[in-house]
Write a structure and sequence with these properties.
348 residues; alpha/beta; Rossmann fold; 3 domains; seven-stranded mixed beta sheet; 38% helix; ATP-binding; ligase; [citrate (pro-3S)-lyase] ligase activity; EC 6.2.1.22
Length: 348
């Protein structure tokens, strides 16, 4: 009987990394750009017959050589990854998988959150994780009938964000403002949350929510078994809409406001999918023209570019006073230093 072992594959091991790439390609899987741990299953002849990876709290890029499938190696692989995740303190885990693999992950203790047709299923290892998130959302008064929503990252919070929120607030009785809480931005979530709340403190009908791991996060970015970047973005948008629709039902949300996006391909596709799909769930989608000053569109990317170019004086007219004041604080100066050292400040 063949014996198998599971070993860590380090980023510096170029030969092993190439073996992983070949195995993934053989099994029709694109290597994910976001990986922070990779392991391999080896047979007694030191042949790589399986591989799997993690990124933060997700399991990714799982593949078993087709000649070795049916020997329980996927179970061995996932069990190893779960143990590894728990060892680094990640107890709440996520996986996105093809529909035909749902039963396998169900047997390993994962539960479905949402799915996109026959393409993708998003799962977590807690039976009531998403339900608990929904239950904990602040609902607001039941007397409101015109309830709007906005989802923003705010990296950092600009007058453009405020304009979108103002339009949504003015057009509704109650506004649920979702703040993307994943820390994948140059401005950390604790700062973005503070700037959003300070920059909108004068609006009286806003309820603030953290998105947690469910909305627009790396947990919900499927890519490794989708054929191309366009499909990845569209599927991600569809998955986010599936999750958002469940949240909207919980909060009786009737509309979602989004900013027009002339620059970002990703956001443009998101907006198109939302405008097409949300009405089927009884949710209106309003795309608001971007806020401009002297004919120039205000965007967080533009702010970051100005900071990187050491043109902080030009930022003052483009952000609320609370954002500008923060940039002069000790913590703000640390973020400015990171932006100036960053290779790419123009990203989603």
């Amino acid at each position: 009987m063949t014996e198998y072992s599971v070993s860590t594959i380090y980023a510096s091991d170029k030969i092993a990394q190439e073996e992983v790439n070949r195995l993934l390609k053989q099994e029709g899987i694109r290597r994910d750009d976001n990986l922070d741990y990779t392991c391999g299953i080896y047979d007694s002849n030191n042949k790589l017959v399986g591989t799997g990876s993690c990124f933060k709290s997700t399991l990714r890029c799982l593949a078993i050589d087709k000649e070795y499938q049916g020997e329980g190696l996927m179970n061995l692989l996932v069990t190893h990854l779960i143990d590894y995740q728990q060892g680094r303190g990640n107890a709440h885990l996520f996986v996105y998988t093809k529909t035909e693999s749902v039963r396998f992950f169900t047997d390993l203790g994962f539960f479905e959150i949402a799915r996109v047709g026959e393409t993708l299923v998003f799962m977590e290892n807690r039976p009531n994780g998403f339900r608990k998130y929904l239950n904990n959302l602040e609902k607001g008064s039941a007397q409101h009938s015109n309830i709007a929503s906005v989802v923003i990252n705010a990296n950092p919070f600009t007058l453009g964000h405020r304009h979108l929120i103002e339009e949504a607030s003015r057009s509704s009785d109650l506004l649920h403002l979702f703040m993307v809480s994943e820390d994948a931005s140059l401005f950390p979530f604790s700062v973005r949350k503070k700037l959003i709340q300070e920059g909108t403190a004068d609006f009286s009908n806003i309820i603030y929510h953290e998105t947690g791991p469910y909305m627009i996060s790396t947990s919900t970015f499927p890519s490794y078994f989708l054929k191309d970047d366009q499909t990845v973005i569209e599927t991600q948008a569809l998955l986010d809409i599936e999750i958002f629709t469940k949240i909207a039902e919980e909060l009786a949300i009737t509309s979602r406001f989004v900013g027009e996006e002339p620059f970002s391909t990703v956001t443009n596709i998101y907006n198109t999918v939302m405008k097409n799909r949300l009405p089927f769930s009884g949710i209106s989608c309003f795309e608001i023209p971007r806020f401009t000053i002297d004919g120039e569109i205000i965007s967080a990317s533009k702010i970051r570019q100005l900071i990187q170019r050491d043109q902080l004086n030009l930022v003052k007219e483009l952000v609320p006073s609370s954002t500008f004041e923060f940039l002069h604080s000790a913590e703000g100066k640390e973020i400015i230093a990171r932006i100036r050292d960053s290779d790419n400040v123009i990203h989603y």
